[in-house]
Amino acid sequence: MIHISDEAARKVASLMAEQGQSPDKAFVRVAVKSGGCSGLSYDLDFVDNESEGDQAFEAKGVTILAEKKSLLYLIGTTLEYQGGLNGKGFQFNNPNASRTCGCGESFTV
Question: How far apart are CA 63 and CA 59, in angstroms?
Fold first, then answer.
């Protein structure tokens, strides 16, 4: 399962509204891809439809999609949002990561 913090859910709804989308009809797709300074990197996007093989998780009014391959790395992860001066943006709090890079955008399992 993938979780989302209250702040991240509010930010997702705000960003979707800015783009003319609604959390009722759009999804947040999270994925893990090869790359980054630690070997694997996170990918986050808004999409209008599910793809075959997606796993869907409903949390706080937001539907999060993840393909099965990415889900192996993301189980138990919480999508968070920090809006302060020292690091603004979405962050993945991933209990499966054994090491992360300094910017937090890539990790190793």
Answer: 6
Cα separation, 40 vs 61, in Å, equals 28
Q: Which residue has the tokens 């009722």?
A: 24
Q: Over the stretch 3-32, which tens digit does the pLDDT of each residue have? A: 999 999 999 999 999 988 887 889 999 998
- Mean local confidence (pLDDT), 59-88: 88
Domains and CATH numbers, the chain: 3-108 (2.60.300.12)
Has residue 41 got a pLDDT over 80?
yes
Strands, E assignment, the chain: 3-4, 27-34, 40-47, 54-59, 62-67, 78-82, 89-93, 99-100, 106-108
Going by DSSP bridges, is the β-strand pair 99-100/40-47 parallel, antiparallel, or unpaired?
unpaired
Distance CA 100, CA 62 (A): 26
Extract the tokens encoding 20.
């003319």
